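Service request form, structural biology core

Requester: graduate student, group of Dr. S.
Request type: structure prediction, single chain
Budget code: on file
Notes: please return the result as structure tokens.

Sequence provided:
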Amino acid sequence: MSYDLLIRGGTVVDGTGAPARTADVAVNDGLIVEVGRVDGRARRTIDADGLTVTPGFVDIHTHFDGQATWDPHLTPSSWHGVTTAIMGNCGIGFAPVHHDRHDFLIELMEGVEDIPGSALAEGINWQWESFGEYLDALERMPRAVDVGTQIPQAALRAYVMGDRALDAPTADDLAAMSRAVTDSLHAGALGMSFGRTAGHRSASGQPVPGTYSEEDELAALMAAMAKAGTGVLQVVPAGVGGEMGGDQRHSIDAEVEWICRLGQQFGIPLTFLAMVNEQDPHDWQRWFADVRTANAAGANVRPQVASRAFGMLMGHQSRMNPFRHRPSYRALMDLPLEKRVVLLRDPELRARILAEPPDAGDGLSADRLNRHTFKRVYPLGDLLDYEPSADNSIAAIAERECRDPWEVTYDTLLGAEGREFLLFPLLNYAGNDYHHLHDMMSDPVSLQGLGDAGAHCGIVCDASMTTYLMSYWVRDRTRGPRIPLETAVHRLTGDPAAFYGLGDRGVLAPGRRADINLIDLENLGLHYPELVEDLPAGAGRLIQRSDGYVETLVRGQTIVDHGELTDNRPGGLVRGARPAAAA
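Core staff response, request fulfilled:
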């Protein structure tokens, strides 16, 4: 036999959860044709001895809705093994849209997901109105990785209801939205998303359309999905992130109740975001129990969980700097980082900034730190400690050194030539460790996601959660149990692909797509986050690179080679569910 590509002698972790084994992987025409002991020749042979061979990662929770129209690689995700990215999450996105609503949708994305509106306005070339036309525009662009997207409820409401998008829909509105859902699913949408947390607001402070939708609307849209016979529903429940601001008009318990009940009624695959809060850290156990009961009765509901804390990185490269509302610091914010750091080392300026009270800030601000919250703020450090212990908090350091926490914060942020960050976990860090998160991830009812790739780019870079799961949870964790390698790979590949009906990928088996990661697992790890200004209009974002991905391939073509992007464009648009090809 002759093959296009032959990967020889790697440790194959096939994405099913089966034990790792030494095997060869043969590829022809972008598809896997053999896995095992393979005889024959190939146009290209890769010696994978010592490497872990996995399917490409399927990231189901990204916000590349705008970036996908200008960036073929979807960095930083492609640096972290992702070969399929699913957008249109949290009820927001850019289709369907009337021409006079472009700015409205940009304001929603900027406010909810912290993506610079200037970059979106400059970068998006609006070539669509309907959702199907948006898919056509995505499909026309050559790209390295695959993208698929969901129908965002906020955009749908704005498209159908116009200026009334925040009001209750009429019967005619519901009928029009239901028709649009059906048309969009038939055009190739992978599902739909609802965003219901009051903490999500547009850049102008308005609620996201759909935040307070009543059950008749939710049921009508779910019925349209059920009738179409395809698609996943993704939900941000009301109350999620409530401790970060916004009133909680519904409890998450009530949200899980209707999710399970309507999920059982309509039978559509449904995933909702589940995170641990400090006040009621055991609530997730009740939600998971409700989900298992509903699934036993015919529902297909999966709580979606992250692989690390949800919060922010504070520092001189972050939009959230603890001193940004102090006049003497604010006067320096437009200076290049290097020059700013030189000035901040001056003892007189240091004393002046520390003595100044902050000006009135906007909403929740990192300036609102106090002696209680300093107990939950930690230096990220050279080792990128995303699971720091309580004795490493700013408060603990200050107590040991008999210093004021603000002084410790100031001096810490000047570390690494001013590139040090402070980690401020807001959710998923009850008890100052990840024991709850480990249990959530280990429960097979949960679904891995919530990396928010492309979003919150002024305060965090969580697109790297895939690499974090494969390195920290599989290899490095010492503060509690780890995640088995086979389980971690399954959660990043075969499991999410199957849930979204993408049977052509996520598993290394004959007939599946040759989306493959070759990983040096021993050396897999994260770089320090850094600020770059590579978005349209010169807007900045935090990115995080990685080590250890020897190659990432899409349809058998290398798109990332030892961390460097290639010119190959084997990716495309994922239109609807895809069964596995015949072996």
